[in-house]
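Changelog note: in this version the structure field was regenerated for every chain. One regenerated record is shown below for reference.
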Amino acid sequence: MLHEIVNYARRAGLCAEPGFSAKEVRWAISLTSAGQYLGLLALGDPAGRRKRGRMFPMCPDLMHGELIAGGKTRSHFLVERVEVVAGFGQPVNPGKTPAKRRFFIELLKQASEVMPELSAAAAVLEDQEAMSRLRQKLAEAKAKPTDKITLCIDGRFPVESQDWHQWWRRYRAGLVPARRGKKSKDRGGRMLCLLTGEAVLPAATHPKIKGLPGANPSGATLVGFDKEAFRSFGLEQSANAAMSEEAAKAYEAGLNDLIRSHATRLRGLPVLIVHWYRSKVASEDDPLAWLEDPPEVAEADAQIRARELLTAIQTGRRPDLAGNTYYALSLSGNGGRVMVRDWMEGAFEQLLEAVDSWFKDLAIVRPTDGGLAPLPRFSRLVSSLAVGDQQEGVAPPLAAKLYRAAVRAEPIPFAVLTQALARTRVDLVKGYVPDAAHAGLLRAYLVRQYRQKGEISMAEAIQPELNKELGDPAYQCGRLMAVLAAVQQEALGRDVGADVLQRYYAAASATPALVFGRLMRLAQFHLGKIKQDKPGLAWWYEDLVAGIAKRIGREMPATLTLEQQSMFALGYYQQLAELRAPRQQKQQIEEGGNQ
């Protein structure tokens, strides 16, 4: 995984030199080289929906250990938080922020030996009147104390200049002895780097990964050993997973860029999914983007597009996509730690086949008119599984497993089935229209289970629309439940209070034999009422009930397992869609019966 992230960073030309890092900056202090304050500049797109700043690819950067080396409080150079540079807002750490500001100004003065204009910037930052005006502008612009800010001198950004690079390298090199502190036996010799295989002096600590939900604002560590229980053979800190400082910086640069530019957060969950390809793939040809809630790609078009691309590769019309490899990584943060939920890689052609299978298995009829429902976006599918007072859908580890099922064409986890089934039951009991996404997920689970067992004919029999001939008693019981509920509604109208579904669905789907006897007796009463006004419709319902009962068999199932209950729910859902679709046909039956 780390090897491929480093390869990505190299192909993208990302800065992987220790002491440098790409940073997103929201604001800049505009001044002249003569020391005159000009105002505040908003960078990037501060008025946009995501309010992103401007990316500077090579900013000076210190790791946490360097910032506190030797017990001294330090700040970053040229790019820092607004609270540090301008003394604006409520500081995160009131005791250290003033010291950081003094250090920031002192660094500007020291670097003026290679960039004289930085001394003017230091003078402006020490000018109380200029700082008062700056803080007022920051307040008017609704800046946050944690936003990044830099300098703009005579219309140019010093951070973009290379004049300070060599000075910065020398300055940072002087921090190394202080950063390492006392010498220890594992740091005295070289070790084999896990990424390069070369003999290196292992980095004591690794740079942090930023932008993960659930992680600390300052970032989280992917490789770190700060507890005794994590260490082996007397090694300290990151020597337990030896990597050179350059290798650690390379994976940090690649992963931070992926999170910043190629990540999708699952709605309602602290989970990010990042993906990339060995060879570049255009956004319109990216099947993983179709899964990950793309803003401009219709879900209904994604399955067609997957088939077209797969055919184009197989016939040689798209050689640029043949032999490509995809990489997908599920991540979340837990305070100061990076949680790797899942890692996948494979052939592009296999990915297209898996995405095609995912959309095909999820296809389901719409509950309102009988047409096919739009295929659910993955993030929406996950968030829709929340039950009761839950704010989230499925737990992050389970969301990662469901994503793997989509990308690798694997069986859907049983825990996802139970949650989708519970959500469907809650909707029906509350009188809501059943969610097509849940029904599609139930169908996909069943299809993949039968396919895995080698029962291909049964998997093919579970269609997106109603299959009246499906030889499964639980499925037919679900159909019967839908018909009996429709009979009651036809007889009594909508002002019936708690209807058949609300009172009996949960029990009927678990123990059909105990419930359907009573429901059939109630149905006879309701059919008698319908016959008074619409005898043709009553006979039609009677024939429908008789046909379903024949397919159930001589004995109603006593109990149903959770998988059988999902068949019951699918039968109910598809029969409901069938009943709602042929309204013109039912109207003709009613008119014919009244003549």
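Spot check on this record: Residues 209 and 252 are 6 Å apart (CA to CA). The two ends are 74 Å apart (CA to CA).
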